[in-house]
Structures are given as structure tokens and as C-alpha cells.
Amino acid sequence: MPPVSFRQVGAGSWYGQNMDHPQAPAPGAVPPGVVPRHVAVVMDGNGRWAKERGLPRTEGHRAGEEALVEVVAGAIEAGVEWLSVYAFSTENWRRSPSEVRFLMGYSRRVLRARRDLFHSWNVRVRWAGQAERLWPSVIRELREAEQLTVNNTGLQLVLCVNYGGRAEIISAAKSVMEQGGAAALSEASLSQAMSTPDVDLFWRTSGEARLSNFLIWEAAYAELVFTDKLWPDVTRQDLWSAIDQYGTRERRYGRA
Ligand code: FPP
Questions:
Q1: Ligand 1 centroid distance, CA of 190 (Å)
Q2: Is the pTM of this model over 0.70?
Q3: How far is the CA of 137 from the centre of ligand 1 (A)?
Q4: CA–CA separation, 99 and 50 (whole Å)
């Protein structure tokens, strides 16, 4: 039987002071041998979740915070090593000024509110994205979370904030070329210069089936899984179902 979700025992009680810390794979969460090393998540559908309820879009983002905590816990319990989440893309600046303002303040609040919890779960927080345009106070929170968790050896949680895949490739290419010129450019050197290792499972919620410029270099050989649920409704069991689907795929990397 899978571990009980906090939604089943009542939101709020699960991740309080006395919760069990999901610091290690939970027996029975996901069959061993099918666990992807790196899962990339496009947390999509917050706006639609709010619209369905006649609420402002910002309420959808607010509701998405619990799903994030739930999926981090589920990833730890499944034995995933790297979890990258798309929190704010370089394209998200095109949203209304009020939503952008909300998302900046929201990211800052989530980081501050959750960093101790993630730290207690032995999670190492990393930030991937560009500093340009990003609010300095958000950068400060990201750096603090990174500092706090720098020695943690559990799940590597990559918060992709002001992140764009094409921009990441350009910046990696520049850094490789600065060190060794054009001759130094290779698939191996570029991969080395990226923020994350190769993605094994690319998971997007809300029924949309697009990459949206997320980890496009790293996801070159990823298995894609799309889930209809809107992000705020997601629980760790949905992550495990996505991992189950991943486990049924045959990864051939071009071989026959
Ligand atoms: C996409 O839904 C979701 C976002 C743009 C923000 C998601 C961010 C979080 C849940 C957490 C942020 C946390 C940290 C730590 C920085 P959408 O607005 O595109 O939904 P729609 O497609 O239904 O409009």
C-alpha cells in the first residue's frame, strides 16, 4: 500500500512539526529499477484551476504551493535523485504586470516558508536561471536557500526561476568557448556546462503537450509523460503514476 498522502489525512497536518521526514525511498512507493534519476516538471494549470472556481489566477498559484511540497516528498520517497521544477520562465515576463508582481513575491514567500522544511528533508536546493530582470529579493532568497542546504546529500531540487532553455544553451556555449575556444565545443562539454544532468522523465501537468523551452538540451532523450490533472490538484501518487509510465517505456537512444 502506498504511503498515505497528506491530502488524505488533512492538509496542514502532514508537513507540520511532527511529520515523518521523507528522507529516503519509501518501500512500496515505486517498484525499484524503474526510477528515473532526473525528473523535470512543468507545473502547469494554476490559472485554469482558479478559473474553474471563479477565483483570480493568483489563487491558483497559491494553491500550487502544496502540490510542490507533495511532489518533492514523493520524489524523495520514490528515490529520484534530481527534481527540476519550472517556477518562472523567461517568457513569463509577458504576463500582466500584476501577475508578474504576484509571482515574484510568491516565489520569495515560498522559498522563505519552505526552505527549513526542505533542509530537514536533506534536500539540496539549487537555482537555475538568469539574474537579469529577476527581482534582487528573489535572488537573495534563492541564494539563501542554496547556502542553507549546500551540504545536503539527498534530493537535488533545482528551482528554475527566470529560466529559458535556449538562453541556458547560449550561456553554456559562451562559458565553454571562453575557456577553450570553438574547438572546445562538444556535446560532452556543453552537457557539463548545463545546470542539470540529462533528464530521464519530463512530466507536464494540465493536459498540455509542449516542452515550452524547459531543459531542452538536457531533455534530448527524455521520456515525455503528460498528465491531465491541473497542478494544484496533483499529489505524490500522480508523480508515481508518471514514473510507472516511464517504467513501461523502452529507451533506445537511437539503437534499433
Ligand atoms: C503555471 O500555471 C505555473 C506557474 C507559472 C508558477 C508555478 C510555481 C509554483 C507552483 C511554485 C513556485 C515556487 C518557487 C519555489 C519559486 P499557469 O499560470 O501557466 O496556468 P494556466 O496554464 O492554467 O494559465
A1: 28
A2: yes
A3: 19
A4: 13
